[in-house]
Design a protein that fits this description.
The protein has three helices and no strands. The longest helix has 15 residues. With 67 residues, it is mainly α. Helix content is 54%, strand content 0%. The chain has a domain of 29 residues. The model has no long low-confidence stretch (mean pLDDT 78).
Length: 67
């Protein structure tokens, strides 16, 4: 199983339609090409925390708590 995660930084779009339009434009501009651009540190830190929180070790730790 895998998930796609879009992290928004900045002003929230006025509607789902506007969010999809902006997302598609940014995706085309920054992710659809061959060149990878540096990430924003706050996003990198968020993803690192999220990855740790949902890592296999974290899941085992949660499942092994006494009830």
């Amino acid at each position: 199983m895998s998930y796609g995660l879009v992290v928004w930084q900045g002003d929230v779009p006025s509607s789902d339609h506007e969010a999809a339009r902006v997302h598609n434009r940014l995706y085309s501009e920054y992710l659809d090409g061959d060149e990878l651009l540096p990430t924003v540190s706050v996003i990198t830190e968020f993803l690192a925390g999220l990855s740790w929180e949902f890592s296999e070790g974290s899941i085992l730790r949660v499942n092994s708590r006494p009830r």
